[in-house]
Amino acid sequence: MKMSMVFSKIILLLLLSPLVLASTCQRRDASSPNTTQAGPFVALVIDSSRDIPADTWATMKTYASNLVQDISVHRPSAKFAVVQYGSQAGLGIDFAIFGSQVPFITQVIQQLLPLSGPANVDSGLALAGAYFQPSHGYVPGASASILVISGSGQEGGVGNVSRDLRAANISIYGFGANDAGMDTVSQIVEDPSSDVQRVLPLFDDLFADSFFDNMINNTSTDPITPGAQL
Predict the structure, then answer these.
(1) DSSP code, position 45
(2) Of all helices (H) and strands (E), which one includes residue 209?
(3) Each residue of 111-167: pLDDT tens digit?
(4) Of 127, 124, 133, whose CA–CA distance to 185 is shortest?
């Protein structure tokens, strides 16, 4: 676990180094966001636990990268955050600095390393939920969504974090890479019949579905107010 976290941090530092100047400029902009063009804000929560087969893990990362690219094409003002989780949350990047830099976000996703320990989706959801605050680059009132990509089950089921996030006006959608992943995400979304999708090879087909139309057009006039435990 510790070695994987170290490697993840090293990779992140290498990716960040050529973008220091750009990050400084963007953080200056983030202090006074243009609320008329904000969002959607999308946090990807990616299962990186030990039980995911190598081929499934590669598919999940490719799928996550394609989601970011396709959403940015349909909504150029979109901003992204990335969180990975195993037994606890691992690497996390909020909206504030690189949220609109799609090539960087997709590169980070592709460089993610597996984490040790069983899946604990609640840890990933809690960290992602904490990013929907102005201090992390989020603009209150803009569309707020979390996309969970799961490839494993969770022992003992999931907790109440997803319920608290939905109560705070954050929409949650799930993608299962296999049956175990589908079972996990069906426990955290509001409506398993419409908010869960199996990972598919044809990404454009998803944008013809009302699933994505609802996700990227959902807006809230209420500020995000995560539960106390987040």
Answers:
(1) E
(2) none
(3) 999 998 899 999 999 999 999 999 999 999 888 999 999 999 887 778 889 999 988
(4) 124
Q: How far is Cα 162 from Cα 205, in angstroms, rounded to an integer?
A: 27
Rounded to the nearest angstrom, the gap between the alpha carbon of residue 63 and the centroid of all alpha carbons in its chain is 12
CA–CA gap between residue 168 and residue 6 (Å, rounded): 33
CA distance 148 to 118: 16
Give the strands of the sheet with 196-198, arranged side by side.
89-93, 79-85, 41-47, 144-150, 171-176, 196-198
Alpha helices in 81-159 (DSSP H): 102-110, 121-130
Radius of gyration (C-alpha) of the chain in whole angstroms? 16
The two three-digit tokens of residue 70, written as one number: 């396709």
Structure tokens at 163: 């319920």
